[in-house]
Amino acid sequence: MQTFNERVAVVTGGASGIGLGMARAFAGRGMKLVIADLDRAALDAAVAEFEGKGTAVLGQLCDVSKLEEVQALADRATEKFGAVHVLCNNAGVGIPTSACNLKLEDWKWILDVDLWGPIYGVKVFLPLIEAAGEGHINATSSMAGLIAGQMMGAYNVAKHGVVALMASTERELRARKSPVRASVLCPGPINTNISRHSVEFRPGRSKPRADGEKAGKLAGNIQAALEQGMDPDAVGELVADAIAAEKFWILTHPRWAKAAQNQLDALRDDQTLTKV
Ligand SMILES: NC(=O)c1ccc[n+]([C@@H]2O[C@H](COP(=O)([O-])OP(=O)(O)OC[C@H]3O[C@@H](n4cnc5c(N)ncnc54)[C@H](O)[C@@H]3O)[C@@H](O)[C@H]2O)c1
């Protein structure tokens, strides 16, 4: 997509972290914004920030794991701005999760938000973006969508699914010569509050976890590591530039792709699972 000015961008999970960074990058290019989030206080703060800068903005409470709320988001966006040109399926949660010992309700929560959220986004918004005659649909996966490390079981499954969803979408769009492009963002560590937010949002958070103290400690370590990560506003700029350049893969830490390359090499050479 070449022209951003006066076009309409919808960003889920847009009230914080990477989503807020994307919204800032789009606003800086003259776009109108629809910010969707579960967190009312953060949403109000984000809307106030953009209104203060003179950006046309709609803030919409939305849980992306619920199809009817994603549909309502699309309806409100269209009522307010008449069209949608860009969707970033970015809302997500991430806590360390054992693939072997995780409770089924936690599997369901993570897959509902991190995978079904983007599936609903494509289902509801892609026809609208195509009807606008130009645009782009993006989703936020992770390096965990390219290589499955330890103790991130449910997150790995969801994020691999997001990569597959967007690659399948882009191939179909190209095959039918659609003016719309798709892409996937696979960030490495970014300085956001995702670990803290995810602990707060987890349904049944007062109950002990089946995968126990090890996962709880790991969540604290991950949050500390993220504080050394990339600035989310820089990620937003990267995404806007990649959309303009019609790139499919958007990587914040491309050298980390080496782990995925090593696994592909082993797949060809001796079919072993590499260490991660
Ligand atoms: N921070 C990182 O290092 C990192 C790395 C790789 C991938 N990611 C991915 O980036 C995306 C954004 O995460 P972030 O790091 O900016 O975290 P963040 O917690 O700062 O932002 C996520 C936003 O999503 C919202 N949200 C959570 N569940 C929601 C739901 N069901 N419906 C609507 N909104 C919801 C939260 O309220 C929050 O505002 C996620 O998909 C995450 O998996 C983050």
What does this protein look like?
The protein has 276 residues and is α/β, with parallel strands linked by helices. It has a single domain (8-269), classed as Rossmann fold, CATH 3.40.50.720. The protein contains 9 helices and 7 strands; from the N terminus they run βαβαβαβαβαβαααβα. It has a 7-stranded parallel β-sheet, sandwiched between helices. α1 (17-28) links the parallel β1 and β2 (32-37). α1 crosses α8, α3 runs parallel beside α4 (104-132) and α4 packs parallel to α5. The chain is globular, with a radius of gyration of 18 Å. The protein starts with 7 loop residues before the first strand and ends in a 7-residue tail after the last helix. The model has no long low-confidence stretch (mean pLDDT 95). Nicotinamide-adenine-dinucleotide is lined by residues 12-13, 15-19, 37-39, 42, 62-65, 90-94, 113, 140, 142, 187, 189-190, 192-194, 197, 201, 226, 229, 232.
In short:
This protein is 51% helix and 13% strand. With 276 residues, it is an alpha/beta fold. The chain has a single domain (8-269), classed as Rossmann fold (3-Layer(aba) Sandwich).
| CATH domain topology | Rossmann fold
**Order of helical and strand elements:** EHEHEHEHEHEHHHEH
Main sheet summary: 7 strands, parallel
Question: How large is the share of residues in beta strands?
Answer: 5-15%
Mean pLDDT: 95
Bound molecules: nicotinamide-adenine-dinucleotide
Q: What is the fourth-level CATH superfamily?
A: NAD(P)-binding Rossmann-like Domain
Total count of domains: 1
CATH classification class: Alpha Beta
